[in-house]
Amino acid sequence: MNAHFFLLSSPVPVERLSWIEECLKFFFVQLYPETLMHRKTAESPLFSFFLTGDALYSLEDPETLQVWNIILSFTSVRIICDRQELDLRGIGIGPLRMKYPDQVIDTNRSGSDGKSSFWKDLAKAARQSKPPLPGTAGWFQTASPYMHRSAWHGISFLSAALEEQLSVELYAYLDGIHIGHSGQRPTDTESISEGLIGLSEQATAAGLDCHTLACGRCATSRGYSTWDDGQGSVISTCTIKPFKIRDLNQMIDRFTHSHTILSSDAGALQLRKQSAAISYDRAENISKKPPVTILITKHPYSTEIVFGAVSLAVACAHAGILTRVIFLENGIYAVTGNHLTLPGSAVYNIQDVINTVAGKENLHFFAFTPSFQVRGITKTKSLNAVLDIGYPGLGKIFFYPPGNVHADQQRVLVF
Question: Which domains does the chain have, with CATH numbers?
Answer without folding.
Answer: 1-107 (3.40.1260), 126-270 (3.40.1260.10), 271-415 (3.40.1260.10)
